[in-house]
Amino acid sequence: LHHPVPGWIAPPAPQLPSANNPNNPGLNWAWSWGEGVLCMYEREGWGWEREREREKPLSGRTGLQSGGCLSDMGRYLESWLLLSQVSRLALSGLRNWTTAASPSAVFAARHFRPFLPPRGQELGQPWWIIPSELSVFTGYLSNNRFYPPPPKGKEVIIHRLLSMFHPRPFVKTRFAPQGTVACLTAISDSYYTVMFRIHAEFQLSEPPDFPFWFSPGQFTGHIILSKDATHIRDFRLFVPNHRSLNVDMEWLYGASETSNMEVDIGYIPQMELEAVGPSVPSVVLDEDGNLIDSHLPSGEPLQFVFEEIKWQQELSWEEAARRLEVTMYPFKKVTYLPFTEAFDRAKAENKLLHSILLWGALDDQSCSGRTLRETVLESPPILTLLNESFISTWSLVKELEDLQNQQENPLHRQLAGLHLEKYSFPVEMMICLPNGTVVHHINANYFLDITSMKPEDVENNVFSFSSNFEDPSTATYMQFLKEGLRRGLPLLQP
To answer: What PANTHER family does this protein's entry cite (predicted)?
Structure first.
């Protein structure tokens, strides 16, 4: 059993704690899979069942730990659980999810064909495996659902893989951006490496309980497969764990769409599928089609030595991840640097810093700033102004709280403290000097309130509307940025 390390860019996998460990109450799984078939086994062991002759099984393993999600819901959960039977109905799905949905599963090679790139696809050019069908204009899908719609076409392989974690995966999330996007990261004469990003979620409850949505920030991973999809050299799928929070949880307190909903964010240290070796044939035939060797489903796989793949074109994991991210989130056409790095860059370039502080990640599905990123932050005028005049960053409240409490770097503590002084739940947008001084800020709730008002009703002319923009949100955010420039530019060091 394996357990990913904090860095999520191609990390190694150290030993996963035992399922019997009282300090590890979460889910611990092991998977075993291959080009011909894919099997998952609970906790330990892996093997192969042959579905068709000539197909090539591949051993693999995965791990899942999610007990931390329950303990991380620190703001409300334990007190709610003690208050009422309603709370127990709403949260029982999470509390009862303590084991893998299926001890094993079998996949045929053809099931992985959806990961093949379209004909003529170039290195680094993203494409949609499962397109997103939602936008800020279409709204979102119903929260009051228990069972996913039957998957169709390329959705089937994603649904079946995720069903090993829990029996009710939704391959399209309720909120945009949905779906699965992929990118070619390496090409050889016979093989592709494809990196992918999946936005999916799980419904943990069934009637008579109330709906409970469990939404990992994203699934990402890669597959190395032959160009005809008859052989798979490697596969990995996982939820990134490099941030302190990576899963959104939303649950209803009633059986209708208008019922009250509660929201919290947690951390899942591991949710992963990983292959441990290349696929191998189930049978070996000579030139005349005569059987040379084979193995029974219960026996040991055939032993092969595979040649080293010589890649002719390659793209780094980091660059591929960035391109997938921009495809999912157009607002990431602006570079958002890590918190301390952004201040270093702002000082070096003598620019103001545009900062967003929030509870959930801005660039994945565990986010508390959906409306912001889907409207003003991806607006072309805002993108242009941010790229030209600001250094941008976004941060989690929890990470700045941790930074403020660390003793190693007093400057970083000061920068975090200046941000947290101005923060109000749920999202705060700020304009700062390179020394951390906040010269202008606006809360997301107030921002949404004034953009829903008539222009003549807005008392503060700092956030007055402009006739140059039809969209009040874009106009208001443009005014916010320009006011930040007006206040901050005179204070920059010459």
So the answer is: SELENOPROTEIN N
